[in-house]
């Protein structure tokens, strides 16, 4: 009989660059991914952006759910992302359901 390891919990995270830009990503290991970004081995968009600060992270569930939430967060305006970081919601899914997108 084969035993299966439980599926990894995926997390959404938001980093702030030295210039104040926000970067959103997903991973199964937030500390590892932050270290990769800080060492220039993560996303090209963050290379050379100075020190990075983890400003938000939360568990989402499986990879599919994490990808969907990541897409939704990336669609938010900067102000909405700043509010998300400031609010630090415990339940991101419920929080996102309350956000009404205003056309640009």
UniProtKB/TrEMBL annotation:
InterPro entries according to UniProt: GIY-YIG_endonuc (IPR000305), GIY-YIG_endonuc_sf (IPR035901), UPF0213_domain (IPR050190), UPF0213_GIY-YIG_endonuc (IPR022992)
Location of the GIY-YIG domain: 8-83
Species per Swiss-Prot/TrEMBL record: Chimaeribacter californicus
The family this protein is said to belong to: Belongs to the UPF0213 family.
Pfam families according to UniProt: GIY-YIG
Listed name of the protein: UPF0213 protein CYR55_12030
Domain of life of the native organism: Bacteria
């Amino acid at each position: 009989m084969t035993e299966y390891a439980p599926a990894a919990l995926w997390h959404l995270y938001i980093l702030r660059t030295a210039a104040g830009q926000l970067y959103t990503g997903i991973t199964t290991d937030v500390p590892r991914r932050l270290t990769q970004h800080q060492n220039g081995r993560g996303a090209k968009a963050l290379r050379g952006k100075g020190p990075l600060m983890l400003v938000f992270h939360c568990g989402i569930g499986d990879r599919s759910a994490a990808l969907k939430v990541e897409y939704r967060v990336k669609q938010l305006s900067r102000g909405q992302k700043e509010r998300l970081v400031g609010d630090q919601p415990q339940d991101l899914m419920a929080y996102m359901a309350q956000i009404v997108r205003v056309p640009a």
